[in-house]
UniProtKB/TrEMBL annotation:
Record Pfam families: DAO, Fer2_BFD
Protein name in UniProt: NAD(P)/FAD-dependent oxidoreductase
SUPFAM superfamilies given in the database record: FAD/NAD(P)-binding domain (SSF51905)
Taxonomic source organism: Fusicatenibacter faecihominis
Ranges of residues in domain FAD dependent oxidoreductase: 3-353
Domain spans labelled BFD-like [2Fe-2S]-binding: 402-456
Amino acid sequence: MYDVLIIGGGVTGSAIARELSRYDLKTALFEKGEDVCSGTSKANSGIAHAGFDAAPGSLKAKMNIRGSQMMEELSRKLDFPYKRNGSLVLCFDEKDRPRLEKLLQQGKENGVEGLEILEKKELLALEPALSEEVVCALHAPTGGIVCPFKLTIALAENAAVNGVEFHLNEGVKRVQPGTVEGYTVETGKGTYETRIVVNAAGLYGDEIHNQVSEEKLHITPRKGEYCLMDKKIGQLVSHTIFQMPTAMGKGVLVTPTVHGNLMVGPTATDISDKEGVDTTAEGLDEVLKKAALSVKSLPRGVTITSFAGLRAHEDHDDFILGEVKDAPGFFDAVGIESPGLTSAPAIGEWMAEKIVEKLRKTQKVDEKKDFQETRKDIPNIASMDQAEAAALIAENPAYGTIICRCEKVTEGEIIDAIRRPLGARSLDGIKRRTRAGMGRCQAGFCSTKVMDILARELGIPLEEVTKAGGASKMLTGGER
């Protein structure tokens, strides 16, 4: 019998797991993918939103503000990349100034600090690459950028080190009330009993919820397509550049990433396929055209890859958090679309508090005296000074062998990614942890070397190495 069983290994589920790992509880997380951060959390803009967009009083506003406040300290404790670079919301028509002023007042009501409206002259001095058509902009200095992979993996690793069981490649098929207490959870590999269920199943959160509640939810996959550009133009802008938001979202943005690239996107198209992460020529063209309205002379020829992500848009247009009224012990963390990445640490904190409060009504729940609050990421040779790198290589020569030339990722880093808690088991798992394959050539040169290391470290035939688990094997057939 588990005390808590979490469904979903994205950033929300991982944040909840990390906060629950502070307590003496038997906690498990089930994820249908071969790795954490393999669904919605892996495909977004990596923005730590300031908090001016969400409606005052909403859960989105509350969690966004708290999450933004938590992010910097959390990045130090869990060692993931985060930068408070500030954001700008551009206004191109004087007639739209009242909308921008309304956004300013809304942000202040939410508790966002430092908000101000900058005029054209100030803006162009701050960001010379902005379009000459800009009239004014809302400046949010507390806005930031973060690595969504590193954040999610850091939360999950820390939870695992503190005792949370992770069941990867094990999707939940059915949840029903237990015969005596709590719930019975069925997967493709077994049946489990738990006192508490946490539904953090992303796009499938409505399907899990609707198995236990008469108050039905409905999630629409909202597809966003992005273009990632080469690092040589990564400094074209220093702030995250938004356009005036619409009912479909915050519009197309232009932003630097914490790794030095430039990213533009996303589109916002409601679709029916919850696995529909294909990109389209039309969508990518829309992204580049709209981004060019914000930043002049935005070059198209430096795009190194494109991708699409799906946001879990619930019909109520707010986060759905907490215990379900007609399903005691079943907690939802559903409809976590933007600003979900920013909000995740706050959601984890809030949900853990509610769950522990529930459990304490029937059992003793103590905080762990040996909780490990910090975690160190994989050493990164590319960011080290010469002396530091030389010392690491002297200690372990594998850190002196470059595998990915574009991102300067070494064999030592790849081995570490495989051997650490919740280690990588695929090329995508390596990519998310080390950036091997994320550079200009998009793994054109390093894939075979990474495959060799994976096969060797995992003790499997080369033919069993996958891109992203399951049937995504890199090699097919054999000698004839």
